[in-house]
Amino acid sequence: MSPSRKGAEGKGQETNASPVQIVPLWGPEIKYVLLDMDGTLLDKYFDDYFWEHLVPETYAEKHGITFGRAKEELMKKYKRHEGTLNWTDIDFWSRELDLDIPALKEQIRHLIEVHPHVEDFLKLLKRHRKKVFIVTNAHFKVLDLKMKKTNIGRYFDACITSFEMGYPKEDLRFWQKAQERLGFQKEKTLFIDDTEEILKTARRFGIRYIVFKARATSKKKPKPSKDFLTITDFNELCNESI
Ligand SMILES: [Mg+2]
């Protein structure tokens, strides 16, 4: 699948930016590359397993209830905080659930994996002297744990979390703060994320080049986006003639 021919930015456009049909990744048009972490660079299986299996299991044991009941209760709690800063705040969840969330994450750190061809892509970005940033909703403690485990931190000029910005990426204000902090020019920026809601906010903010990363987790079939240029694997962007 060639990303250069899959542009769908013309439809449902929410900004004044001109429709983008191609991603001129290796030319001077793109100077800044913003990358989401979980699901985009890293296999989201770790997070899914953590919240949908390990946490309910531990919660069930603590309260002497079944796994099914624990999961049901937790799903309701998760839902209430989705898309907010609480969702990203593992200290909040430690308090809310009375569990040591950072320690539980450590317990399954062996499940933290980088998606295929991510490192090839990051190396190419460096070779082409792009400014490369991680922009994540993850808590800084989780970012830290994942960078230590995967060793990909060396490819980035900076990493910012929604926690530091004070807003989640779904909020326009995140992007204003992020721009102040990182100093990118939105018309020369590519942003890749596996959450369409977030891509919509970035588009509204005016980020010019936007790509949806399908296959967030290695365990589920990828689904392409109807609204955004889609890749399922970073090797689709590693062709330097794009
Ligand atoms: Mg993500």
Describe the structure.
The protein has helices at residues 45-63, 67-81, 85-88, 90-97, 101-107, 118-127, 140-150, 162-165, 172-182, 196-205, and strands at residues 32-35, 131-136, 158-161, 189-193, 209-213, 229-231. The protein is of the alpha/beta class. It has two domains: 3-43 and 112-237, Rossmann fold (3-Layer(aba) Sandwich), CATH 3.40.50.1000; 45-110, no CATH class. A six-stranded parallel beta sheet has the order 3-2-1-4-5-6, with helices on both faces. Helix 10 links the parallel strand 4 and strand 5 (209-213). Helix 1 (45-63) packs across helix 2. The chain is globular, with a radius of gyration of 18 Å. The structure holds magnesium ion. Magnesium ion (MG) binds at residues 36, 38-40, 193-195. Magnesium ion (MG) binds next to loops.
Nutshell version of this structure?
The chain contains 10 helices and 6 strands, in the order βααααααβαβααβαββ.
Share in β-strands: 5-15%
Order of helices and strands: EHHHHHHEHEHHEHEE
- Tell me about the largest β-sheet: 6 strands, parallel
Total DSSP E strands: 6
N- to C-terminal separation? Answer: 12 Å
Radius of gyration: 18 Å
Named at the architecture level, the CATH assignment of the largest domain is: 3-Layer(aba) Sandwich
Structural class: alpha/beta
Return the CATH topology of the largest domain: Rossmann fold
Strand order in the sheet with the most strands: 3-2-1-4-5-6
Q: Average pLDDT across residues?
A: 90
Tally of domains = 2
Level-1 CATH class name of the largest domain: Alpha Beta
Q: Considering the protein shown, what is the CATH homologous superfamily of the largest domain?
A: HAD superfamily/HAD-like
Number of discrete helical segments? 10
Ligand identities: magnesium ion
Q: Could you list the spans in which at least 5 consecutive residues all have pLDDT below 50?
A: 1-21
